Amino acid sequence: MNAAVLPVSEGLDTILRERGQREVFCGLTGIVWLHRKMQDAFFLVVGSRTCAHLLQSAAGVMIFAEPRFATAIIGERDLAGLADANAELDRIVAELLARRPDIRVLFLVGSCPSEVIKLDLSRAARRLSDSIPGVRVLNYSGSGIETTFTEGEDACLATLVPGLPVSTDGADLLVVGALADTVEDQFRRLFAAMGVVRVGFLPARRAAEPPSIGPHTRFILAQPFLAETARLLAKAGLKRISATMPLGAEGTRAWFTAIAGALDIPPSRVQEVTEIPYRRAESALRRMHAHLSGKSIFFFPDSQLEIPLARFAANELGMRLTEVGTPYLHRALIAEDLARLPTGITLSEGQDVERQLDRCRAIRPDLTVCGLGLANPLEAEGLTTKWSIELVFTPIQGFEQAADLAELFARPLRRRARLTV
Questions:
Q1: Which architecture does CATH list for 27-147?
Q2: 3-class secondary structure, 195
Q3: N or C: which end of the chain has fewer CB within 10 A?
Q4: What does pTM read for this prediction?
Q5: Is residue 194 scored above 90 in pLDDT?
C-alpha cells in the first residue's frame, strides 16, 4: 500500500502517511547555508560532477568566487577500482589545505557516488584528523540515498555535538540550528535584555570555537528538522525546551516565553523586553494581512518547515490551510506548532507525488508551496507557486523578519494578479 491513515491526538483528526515517489533535494543542499555560517570551516563533497553542478547552481556562486565548499569528483578510475580512492582523497585534502590555510574544520561530505563505491569517509576523517595538526576533520552524509534537503544540516550538526567542550560554567542556553548572523545578533540582544548572558549557538560562526555546555545547559531548537542533533544533545544530558519555532510575531514571542519559563525568568520581564519588537512585527503583519487573509495554501513536503510555516500562515496571516505535507513528522520537536494548527485540514507525512499532485489539482489552492521540480509544471497549469527552497535560504526567524516571511507568501500572488488580464 502507498498510503495509510493514522489517528493523531494533537487536535487533528487524521494524518495521511504516504510512501511513494518523492520530489525533494538531497542533503548536500544544506552546504549552501552552512558554508556561509561557519567562517573557518570547509565542506569537501566526495561525489560526482552532478553534485558539483547542484551546489554551484543552488548557491548561485560565480566562477571567480572563493566559496567554502568544493567537490572532489569521483572519476571512472575510482569507480572501476583502478585508483586508490583514499590516496586520491589525501592528495586533494593536502592541496586544499595548502591553498586555504585558514581552514580549521574540514567536513568530508558523503554523496550517492561515494556511498555506492563504499568509500569509508568516517575512517578517512579520523585518519586525516590524526595526521593534520590544527585541523579537525569530520564526516557526515549528504547522500540522497540517506538524506533529504534539510537533513543535511541535521547530519552536519550531529557531528559537532561530541566535540562540544564540557565545563561547569557552560552556557545556560544553547540555541540549535543555523541562523543568519543578523538573526543571531537580534536574538543575542533580546537574551541580554532578558538577563540570559551565557548563550551559545550551534553552529557557531567559528566551528573551531564551539560553545561550551554544562550540567545546567538547556537547549532549544531554532529549526524543526534537527531530530538527530536533538537526540545526541539529550543523550549528552541536556534538556530540551519545547516551544513553537520562532516564526512570526506570535511564534517568536512564544519561543522566548518558553525559554524564560525554563530559565526561571519572570514572564513580566519577557513581556517588557519583547513588547516593542512584537508590536512592530504585528503592525507589519497587519499590513500584509489584507493581501493574504482568506487565501488558500497547499504545502508539498520538502523542508520539514511546513508545519511551523502553516501555523504562521493560518494564525498570523489568516490564510486557509488545505493540505500540509512534510517529509517527516517529528511530533515531539514540533508539538507546540502542531497543537496550534486549525482543525479540518489534511496533514500528510512522506510523499506519493502523483497522488498529492492529484489532490492539489482538485483543490486548486491560491498558493502552492513546493519544490523547484514541481513549480514550473504547476505554474503552466495555472497554479501560483512559491519555491520552498527560498523559505530555507532566506532569514525568516525572529520579530524583525516576520514581515519578510509574509512577503514571501504575498509576492507570487501579486505577480499572478499583475499577469492576469
A1: 3-Layer(aba) Sandwich (3.40)
A2: coil
A3: C
A4: 0.92
A5: yes
